[in-house]
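User: Let's play a game. I give you a shape written as tokens, and you guess the letters that built it. Ready? Here's round one.
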């Protein structure tokens, strides 16, 4: 598929990677609008095609007392408002078959979480909405195995599928990105590198996922050098107090510098 098929997406002729970015979860309207405004400003300046990301609910939490959301329809309304206010497409993840039709009324791209990407009913439900389906590679799956998830989308009559790599489990509490998988997955479908989730340190004894945000630029640079089609970066103006995944998110104040460097690398790679 071509990016221009997504409603409201801009800068599709810039030859840049595209960007999925925003907070891990929608915590409220003010925070979502604040983050979106800044990312839109940066991506317009750098001519990066941009999709605002925010989870309307978080179902895969380590502990029962972890933040899961502010209410499904309330969060989805905020995502819709962001899209309309800034004229950008939006993406959110879904966890149950019933989520697909609901979320499709509010956003432009439906994301299948990595732990659920083998769930046929969920993938098919997302595909049948006609929206773009972003399939996150399971931490336990090979790059080659993602062809089957993509085929489920295509066999459901939807040609609009992406793959997102978010690292592979390396031991019990660490993630590793195997860049050999990027060309393999790009041969199957447009491929995104989820930079921030690739730096998670899951399964901590505290029940709160850790992370290594100081490595964000290292992983992102390697992704761009290896020709990923898109980058996925969770960002927040106050990661330390974010209600979900704060340990591996990028501080919003660093986003422009990072993306400026990555755009320069992209130009160099394309010139080789």
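Assistant: Ready! My guess for every position:
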């Amino acid at each position: 598929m071509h990016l221009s098929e997504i409603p409201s997406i801009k800068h599709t002729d810039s030859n840049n990677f595209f960007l999925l970015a925003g907070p891990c979860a929608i915590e409220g309207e003010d925070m979502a609008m604040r983050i979106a405004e800044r990312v839109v400003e940066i991506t317009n300046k750098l001519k990066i095609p941009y999709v605002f990301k925010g989870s309307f609910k978080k179902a895969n939490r380590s502990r029962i007392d972890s933040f899961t959301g502010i209410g499904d329809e309330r969060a989805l309304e905020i995502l819709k408002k962001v899209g309309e206010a800034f004229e950008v497409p939006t993406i959110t993840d879904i966890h149950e078959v019933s989520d697909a039709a609901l979320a499709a009324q509010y956003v432009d791209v439906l994301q299948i979480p990595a732990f659920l990407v083998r769930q046929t009913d969920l993938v098919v439900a997302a595909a049948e909405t006609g929206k773009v389906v972003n399939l996150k590679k399971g931490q336990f799956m090979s790059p080659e195995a993602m062809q089957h998830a993509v085929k489920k989308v295509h066999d459901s009559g939807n040609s609009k599928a992406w793959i997102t790599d978010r690292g592979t489990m390396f031991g019990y509490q660490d993630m590793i990105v195997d860049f050999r998988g990027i060309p393999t997955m790009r041969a199957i479908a447009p491929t995104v590198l989820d930079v921030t989730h690739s730096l998670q340190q899951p399964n901590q004894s505290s029940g709160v996922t850790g992370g290594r945000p100081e490595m964000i630029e290292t992983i992102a640079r390697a992704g761009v050098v290896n020709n990923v089609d898109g980058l996925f970066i969770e960002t927040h103006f106050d990661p330390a107090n974010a209600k979900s995944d704060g340990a591996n998110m990028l501080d919003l104040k660093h986003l422009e510098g990072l993306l400026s460097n990555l755009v320069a690398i992209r130009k160099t790679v394309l010139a080789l």
